[in-house]
Input
Amino acid sequence: MDWAVVLPEAFLFLAALLLLLFGTLFERQAARWVAALAVLALFVAAFLVLAQGGEARTAFFGQFVVDRFSAFVKVLLFVTAGGTILIATGYLQDLRLERFEWPLLALLATLGMAMMVSANSLLALYMALELQSLPLYVLAASRRDSLRASEAGLKYFVLGALASGLLLYGASLVYGFAGTLSFAGLAEAAQRGLSTGALVGLIFLIAGLAFKLAAVPFHMWTPDVYEGAPTPVTAFLAGAPKLAAMALALRLLFGPFAEAAAEWQQVIVLVAVASMLLGAFAAIGQRNIKRLMAYSSIGHVGYALIGVAAADQVGLQAVLVFMAIYVIMTVGCFGCILMMRRGGRYVEQIEDLAGLSRHQPMMALAMALFMFSMAGIPPLAGFFGKLYVFLAAVEAGLVWLAVVGVLTSVVAAFYYLRIVKVMYFDAPAQPFDPLPRPELHAVTAASAVFVVGFLFLPGPIVDTAQLAAEALLP
Amino acid sequence: MSDWPLLSLVTFLPLVGATFIFFIRGEEEVVAQNSRAVALWTALVTFLLSLLIWAQFDPADPGFQLVEKSPWLSGLGINYYMGVDGISLWFILLSTLLTLICIVGSWHSVTSRVKEYMIAFLVMCTMLVGVFSALDLVLFYVFFEGILIPMYLIIGIWGGPRRIYAAFKFFLYTLVGSVLFLVALIVMYLETGTTEIPELMRANFDPGLQLWLWLAMFASFAVKMPMWPFHTWLPDAHVEAPTAGSVILAGVLLKIGGYGFLRFSLPMLPEASLFFAPLIYALSVVAIVYTSLVALAQSDMKKLIAYSSVAHMGIVTIGIFTPNALGLTGGLLQMISHGFVSAALFLVVGVVYDRIHSREIAAYGGLAERMPVYAAVFMLFMLASAGLPGTSGFVGEILVIVGVFMENSWVALLAATGMILGAAYMLWLYRRVVFGALVKETLRGIRDLRANEIAAFAPLVLLVLFMGLYPQFFITPIAASVASLSERLMEVQVQLASR
Output
């Protein structure tokens, strides 16, 4: 077996073990170092992925695969996760939650995500998914003395376990009817025509993944968990895991089940429409910015699923571009939310942002850019993500889906605009505390620059996304 | 000199100026002064450069000139593609001129958040010039929607008491229209494999598909224009926006709808345009008569001018959808003239609003006594708005009415009543505000125009008179482009008639 194939994952795994050792030896004092080293490890892993080159290779008897698609998603995953750990540390210090377990669990979850992206059999898929989920359950509940956080953690765990059960049941059905777990074998079986039982299994698999993606109707956990979990955990949940779950869905649907596209397309279309509608309308009444972001993420998943529903290479590329832009702007947006500290306490109501543009013009500008970008207003990056997705939908003959998409994005624009309104038009509230955290400011600023700069230099993301799409769907 | 990317320079220079202002730091008062200065110089240089576009423009060539092209969204084959023709030339100059006037005009009247204000106007200028010079659909759309961001902020931050409602209404109303245009854009791209406007003009879309595409574009441009019954955002936006915001809104933003019809609907979808022309005529006639009557009933000066804009835009849409050269030229000239006149009228209202802080007509009366220069300026623009011969307002209206008379005499007749009503509400407004005895205590100390206000009005006064007396100057550069468009439409009309 060629160990070079799993080098980034193996490196992350060893790094996690070493950091665990280091953390247990030095306890509390080590927390900062563990966080810094975890970020470093993620960036090194990203370089290792790049160093692997683009050719498709497998390991573990075909259970694990690397190609341009996995490389694209993994680099994005590691960078997003690294950025989130960076912006989280200061906040956790303030809450006295600064334990070395935090970055470690995030690291392990990221390892699970990377394996999800490379999973090439149903067994590997399930293992990777669980490796990703379990650390996240712990993270969501990490604020033990808070009732809300515990509730959020428990809710996340119970519903997540249910989703895992659904997924596992689906996998067993598929295995029972198709006789194999490997994606290659499933692809062959699909070419001969899938039996109804296997299709039912596929639906269960999609349901499980829809839970991880927080797509309607499996979204119920999202607002509560987003609100209840400590903000850095929310930031982490909103970015990397969504990307990983989407990548997994893409590999599953465009790989072994590509032949069954006509069947799963209907399901995806339904989920996409429901997610866009709910994301747009339910967010209007929200007062808590984290809850609002939860609904916003539901809506965004809906848009991404439009690209999946297109079920061709253009759609695949569109989803990758869309998700890349989405996770980067989400990190920046949470960077701003993490700056909302007043009188030593963190606040998270939208009204708390009132008149922000007077006291902290740079932060207000960054937040406004993220909001306009999420609303899909050009010339910001978010518009281009949506453009690609709608383009894919129209090309696949789903014009009506694109129309639903653009109309819900108008509804959604209302609540994004409301945040800009609160920051720019309302009378100033108390200013936020100045936070001397260069890493937080740097990550947020980098994300804001990306949102503006994408217009001028779309190439790196768009072109590599195309290569990734070609790798998965030649 | 001729191989300089002149259009990009004019487009992005204001953005560079805005970036520069963004980095100004220091005491609030100093920042305000420096921001004003940087904005003024940027706008001035931009305007002078845009004059170079005019100087290099060859009026005999109906095609696109000063073309620039470089790869952009490479995977989709979408390029950064800019150029100018007779239809867009004057709009580019109008945008740069009005930006300059806005900055001069709000020199004293804007005192809070000057830095952000100037940035917003310069960014807006970039978007406006970009809209008129983009030769790629996606690029056009980026600028087209990008305008919403600075305008939303301008209305919302520096606007009147109901500014938030107005800002939201403006943003969402326009957004609904434009997202449908986005879908149409994507469909056109997938039909032809290109988003280049010159290519798409040659594409012959299937007539059935044209109807759908036309309706999607109509949703966007009719809201922007605005045409009755999609105009309700306009009075709110105008009333609440700060003076300069109204100026740019009425002066340039409203022209984007007309420009869109001329650039996309007519040349790309000629069959559908002719098919829907009666609908446009009907809506325009209603707009002219109905909104003129509504304007007559207003007690708020800005609202009155806002409704008069809707009526004038009715004339424009009639002209644009009249396939002969007279109508098209008239529609274009009417847009340019309205750009000068409505901008000036909002400045006129802004002058007294800055002094008295009321837009109610009833709060004024007898201003001629204390403000003779103001009264003269106001009179000129009031008469231009009513379409008095010798002013710019007359040229466009008469061309449109003559043009449409050849097509449909009833429409011409009803449009002409608009001119009468227009004279009625403008003259009445003028009488109530400027004439009569100066009886109100608050008005006793009112002072005449300041130097910066005169500087803002001067170019508009000259242009309105110049265009009224020598319209050929404005017609020459647009004639070739209009003629080629008109020929195309006439051909299609003949084809349709023979079928």
The CA atoms of residues 364 and 440 of chain B lie 7 Å apart. Chain B has a mean pLDDT of 90. Residues 294-499 of chain B form one domain. The first strand of chain B starts at residue 65 and ends at 73.
